[in-house]
Each structure stands twice: as structure tokens, then as C-alpha cells.
Amino acid sequence: MAAPAAADVAAFLGQAGDSAVVSLAGQHLPIITAWVKSYTRGVGFTYDVPDDPISAVIVAATARLTQNPEGKITVALDDYSVRMTVFEGFSLVERMVLDGYRRKAA
Fold first, then answer.
1. pTM for the predicted model, two decimal places
2. Residue range 35-58: average pLDDT?
């Protein structure tokens, strides 16, 4: 599989045709990829192309950051409020995948 692309993130969010989402995902994708590569210390990357499970983590984490780049926790209007998805690091499931690649000792 090739490295994840911004279009993959937009498709994951169900907004494949939205050029604004693709553009925003393209800005966030290299950041999340760098964080994942750093977390695994490069394990699971072959010539900068991540393995499939790592690609899935990159797409999911980038989608969370793309969906709410301002990091707003709640949005309220009168009596109505919505709790937003916030990127606060890797989720438990993402960490399970990444920990399988992470070297814990030198």
C-alpha cells in the first residue's frame, strides 16, 4: 500500500468530494505522519512508506485533527450544545497498533 494521501482522509470522513477538507487534510497529514514515525522510532516504515496498520492509524488520527482543527471541545447555541471530537493524542486503539511497532529498549 502507498503512503496515505489527503484524499484518503477526506474519504474516511465521508467528504471525498470536498476540496476544502482534502486541502486541510493535506496540511495535517505530514504532521501526524511525523508523530507516528517518531512514536515508532521509524519501525514499520519502508522507504518512508508506512505498513498498512500504521497507515490506518495515520488516516484515523489525521481525520480527527482535520475534523476539528481549532480543538473546540463544545459548541453551544442557546440550550443546544454539541461535544466535538478533539485530537488529544493517539486513541487507545491507535496506541495498541503503534505499540506493536515501537521499540521499547535501545
1. 0.84
2. 92
Q: How far is residue 14 from each of residues 18, 21, 52, 63, 82, measured CA to CA in Å?
A: 9, 10, 20, 10, 20
Report d(CA 21, CA 27) in Å as an integer: 10
70: cell is: 481549532
DSSP calls for 11-37: HHTT-TT-HHHHHHHHHHHHHHHHHHH
Whole-number Cα distances in Å, 47 to 2, 10, 19, 61, 89: 11, 25, 29, 21, 25
Given pLDDT bands bounded at 50, 70 and 90, which one contains residue 51?
very high
Strands 45-46 and 49-50: antiparallel
Q: How far apart are CA 87 and CA 72, in angstroms?
A: 10
pLDDT in tens, 6-27: 999 999 989 888 898 899 899 9
